[in-house]
């Protein structure tokens, strides 16, 4: 028997957690998963090693109900660079295995036309870097109308002005989505997003 909030997750996620011998949520997951599942824009603040990536994966797949739908991406995960993108892909794989979900990784090292054609062929979850995703959006390489949840992993890297500006540009291309930013601290620069796409946001932590 899973305790809350794992108890209310999709059966596939509970089975995967059990197979990985993760049966008890930590304090961050207890505080954050119900808030994120409710659809509220969320700042998820916690130190390294506190389970932010697992929380991101669980809430993303929960929002998509662990199944493929349509052709346009319904979830976006923003990361700092190619290495982080590949690490995130590896972290997702145990949870997307034996589902119909289509996971796609895009970064600056890939040819942009190849990315466009592969994305338009149909995906559910898009992992990308800010500058690369902004370029795709500007070239109409991603349909944005179906995006349900947009997460940023380790958002501290948005202190870099180019990434910060790219995310602001990206947000202007998305009509409606839930945003979840994961970070070790909520500094003034991240809080500034409240004036743009993080309206009515809630801060949760592992405290």
Automatic annotation (TrEMBL):
Please tell me whether the keyword Hydrolase is annotated for this protein: yes
Protein name as it appears in the record: DEAD/DEAH box helicase
Record-linked InterPro entries: DEAD/DEAH_box_helicase_dom, Helicase_ATP-bd, P-loop_NTPase
* All copies of domain Helicase ATP-binding, residue ranges: 33-204
Pfam short name (any one): DEAD
Q: Which UniProt keywords apply?
A: ATP-binding, Helicase, Hydrolase, Nucleotide-binding
One molecular function GO term is: hydrolase activity
Q: Which SUPFAM superfamilies match?
A: P-loop containing nucleoside triphosphate hydrolases
């Amino acid at each position: 028997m899973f305790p809350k909030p794992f108890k209310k997750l999709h059966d596939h996620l509970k089975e995967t957690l059990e197979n990985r011998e993760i049966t008890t949520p930590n304090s961050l997951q207890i505080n954050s998963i119900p808030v994120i599942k409710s659809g509220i824009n969320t700042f998820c603040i916690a130190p390294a090693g506190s389970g932010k990536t697992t929380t991101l994966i669980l809430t993303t797949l929960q929002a998509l109900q662990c199944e493929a739908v349509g052709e346009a991406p319904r979830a976006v995960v923003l990361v700092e660079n190619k290495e982080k993108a590949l690490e995130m892909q590896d972290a997702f794989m145990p949870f997307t295995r034996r589902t119909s979900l289509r996971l796609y990784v895009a970064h600056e090292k890939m040819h942009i036309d190849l990315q466009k054609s592969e994305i338009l062929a149909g995906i559910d979850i898009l992992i990308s870097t800010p500058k690369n995703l902004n370029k795709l959006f500007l070239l109409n390489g991603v349909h944005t109308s179906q995006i349900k949840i947009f997460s940023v992993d380790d958002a501290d890297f948005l202190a870099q002005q180019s990434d910060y500006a790219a995310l602001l540009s990206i947000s202007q291309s998305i009509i409606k989505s839930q945003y979840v930013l994961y970070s070790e601290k909520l500094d003034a620069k991240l809080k500034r997003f409240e004036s743009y796409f993080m309206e009515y946001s809630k801060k949760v932590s592992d405290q």
